[in-house]
C-alpha cells in the first residue's frame, strides 16, 4: 500500500513540474528597447541611421522600423534579433513627387517569440531638399543645372536639337543620398537613370528646365517643319520614326526643312531635289505631294498625292508610278521595299507623262541581281507587264536597254511577267548612276522604259 502511495506521489510531481515548465515557455516576456539615436527632422531622400539595444527574459524575434506618411506605411526595415544586444540599421525616407513638407511618423517595434510587443514612436518634421545644383548626365558629358527658385533648376547651354540624359541630385545632408530622375513609361520617374530626351526646335543655345517637386520639365518640342508648317507623325505607333507634311509644290519651289538637327548629313534624293548648300529646290512638276522625314533611313521621301491618298497612274498618263521588289532601294540597297507596296518607291513625275527614278549601282541598286516591278498604285493591283497581251488594267511596257529586260513569263524569256531582271551575263557598273525613265502617253498605249547609264 505504501509503495502504491509513493508511486502516485511521484507521478503527481512529474505532472506538476511539466506544467510549470510549459508556463515558463509561454511567459509573455518583457521586450525592452533603448534607442540610442535622436529623431526630430529629416529630408525626403535621407537614410536615417539608428542603433537600438534590446533585452528580454525570453528570446527575442524581430526589431522593426517603419515610417508613415499620414496613415500610409511608406518604408520598413526588419532586423532579426536572436539575442539580447545592440542592433543598427538605416531606414529610407521616401522621396515622392508632389509630397509637401510636413510631418511623418517613425515607429520602432520590438517583438519576442511569444509575440509580445514594445513600441516607440517619433514625430518627424520632413522637408523636401533644395539642392545647390543638379547634374544632367549624358553619354558623353555632364552639365550643371543651376538652382533658380523654389525647386526649379535650369541649364542654358549650346546644345544639339535633341539631347538624352538623366538628372542627378547631390547629397544635401550627412544622411542624404544621391538621387536620380530618368524616363520610365512615358514620364519622368524618380530613381531611374533611363535617358530623358529633351528636344528643341533647332540646335543652338536653349534652356533645359526641371522641377524636383512636380517633375515638370522642358523642352519637349518634337517639331520638324517643312516650309513653315509642323510635320505630323506618319502613323500612331509607327516604330519607323517617320513624320509627314502634305503640301502643294510647284516646280522650282524652295523646300525649307527645320528642326532636324543633323539634316546636313541626310541623303537628298536627286530625282526630287536640287541641293545647293542648305537650299533644296523642287524638281518635279506642279502638284500635291507628301514629304516624309524618315529618321531611320535619314532622308526625305517624296510621294505624289491625290487629295489625302497616294496617287495612282491615270489613263491620261498623269498620276504616279511605284516601284516594289528586291535589288533596288532608297537611300540604300538595304532599304529595298521588297514586296511591300506600302514601302514602295514613288517615281518623280517630270511632266508630259514622264516618270523618273535613278539609282547608284552597288549602293541603291544591285549590280548583279535585280527583281522588281512597276505598279500603278501604292498597293497591289494593276501594273506594267512585258507581255504584249494584257488585261484587267495592266499595260505593256517596252524596255530600251542592253542590260535590263522585262519579264514576259517564265515560259517566254525565263522571267515572271512584268518583273525586271538583268540580261544573262550582264551586270551594272558599280558606282555608276542608272536613270530609269518611263514614258506613259495618254491612253497608256506604247509605254516605254528607257534606262540610261551616267
TrEMBL record:
Cross-referenced Pfam families, in alphabetical order? DUF5016, DUF5121, DUF5125
Q: Where is the DUF5016 domain?
A: 2-118
InterPro entries from the UniProt entry: DUF5016 (IPR032184), DUF5121 (IPR033430), DUF5125 (IPR033429)
Q: Where is the DUF5125 domain?
A: 123-305
**Swiss-Prot/TrEMBL keywords:** Signal
- The stretch of residues making up the signal peptide is 1-18
Q: Which residues form the DUF5121 domain?
A: 316-438
Instruction: Tell me what this protein is called.
Output: DUF5125 domain-containing protein
Amino acid at each position: 500500500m505504501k509503495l502504491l502511495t509513493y508511486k502516485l506521489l511521484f507521478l503527481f510531481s512529474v505532472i506538476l513540474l511539466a506544467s510549470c515548465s510549459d508556463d515558463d515557455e509561454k511567459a509573455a516576456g518583457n521586450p525592452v528597447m533603448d534607442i540610442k539615436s535622436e529623431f526630430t527632422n529629416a529630408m525626403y531622400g535621407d537614410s536615417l541611421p539608428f542603433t537600438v539595444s534590446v533585452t528580454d527574459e525570453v528570446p527575442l524575434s524581430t526589431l522593426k522600423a517603419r515610417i508613415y506618411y499620414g496613415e500610409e506605411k511608406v518604408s520598413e526595415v526588419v532586423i532579426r534579433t536572436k539575442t539580447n544586444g545592440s542592433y543598427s540599421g538605416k531606414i529610407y525616407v521616401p522621396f515622392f513627387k508632389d509630397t509637401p513638407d510636413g510631418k511623418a511618423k517613425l515607429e520602432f517595434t520590438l517583438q519576442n517569440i511569444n509575440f509580445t510587443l514594445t513600441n516607440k514612436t517619433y514625430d518627424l518634421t520632413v522637408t523636401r531638399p533644395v539642392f545647390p545644383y543638379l547634374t544632367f548626365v549624358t553619354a558623353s558629358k555632364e552639365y550643371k543645372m543651376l538652382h533658380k527658385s523654389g525647386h526649379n533648376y535650369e541649364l542654358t547651354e549650346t546644345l544639339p536639337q535633341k539631347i538624352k540624359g538623366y538628372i542627378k541630385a547631390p547629397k544635401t545632408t550627412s544622411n542624404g543620398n544621391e538621387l536620380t530622375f530618368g524616363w520610365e513609361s512615358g514620364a519622368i520617374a524618380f530613381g531611374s537613370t533611363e535617358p530623358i530626351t529633351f528636344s528643341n526646335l533647332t540646335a543652338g543655345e536653349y534652356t533645359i528646365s526641371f522641377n524636383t517637386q512636380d517633375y515638370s520639365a522642358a523642352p519637349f518640342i518634337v517639331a520638324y517643319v517643312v516650309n513653315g508648317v509642323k510635320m505630323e507623325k506618319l502613323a500612331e505607333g509607327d516604330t519607323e520614326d517617320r513624320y509627314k507634311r502634305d503640301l502643294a509644290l510647284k516646280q522650282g519651289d524652295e523646300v525649307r526643312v527645320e528642326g532636324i538637327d543633323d539634316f546636313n548629313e541626310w541623303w537628298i534624293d536627286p530625282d526630287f531635289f536640287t541641293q545647293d548648300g542648305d537650299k533644296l529646290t523642287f524638281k518635279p512638276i506642279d502638284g500635291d505631294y507628301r514629304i516624309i522625314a524618315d529618321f531611320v533611313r535619314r532622308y526625305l521621301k517624296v510621294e505624289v498625292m491625290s487629295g489625302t491618298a497616294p496617287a495612282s497612274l491615270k489613263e491620261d498618263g498623269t498620276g504616279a508610278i511605284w516601284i516594289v521588289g528586291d535589288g533596288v532601294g532608297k537611300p540604300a540597297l538595304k532599304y529595298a521595299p521588297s514586296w511591300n507596296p506600302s514601302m514602295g518607291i514613288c517615281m518623280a513625275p517630270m511632266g508630259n507623262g514622264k516618270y523618273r527614278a535613278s539609282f547608284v549601282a552597288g549602293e541603291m541598286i544591285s549590280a548583279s541581281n535585280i527583281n522588281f516591278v512597276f505598279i500603278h498604285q501604292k498597293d497591289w493591283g494593276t501594273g506594267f507587264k512585258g507581255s504584249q497581251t494584257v488585261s484587267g488594267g495592266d499595260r505593256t511596257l517596252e524596255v530600251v536597254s542592253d542590260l535590263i529586260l522585262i519579264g514576259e513569263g517564265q515560259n517566254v524569256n525565263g522571267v515572271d511577267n512584268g518583273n525586271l531582271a538583268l540580261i544573262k551575263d550582264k551586270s551594272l557598273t558599280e558606282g555608276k548612276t542608272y536613270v530609269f525613265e518611263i514614258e506613259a502617253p495618254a491612253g497608256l498605249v506604247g509605254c516605254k522604259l528607257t534606262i540610261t547609264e551616267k
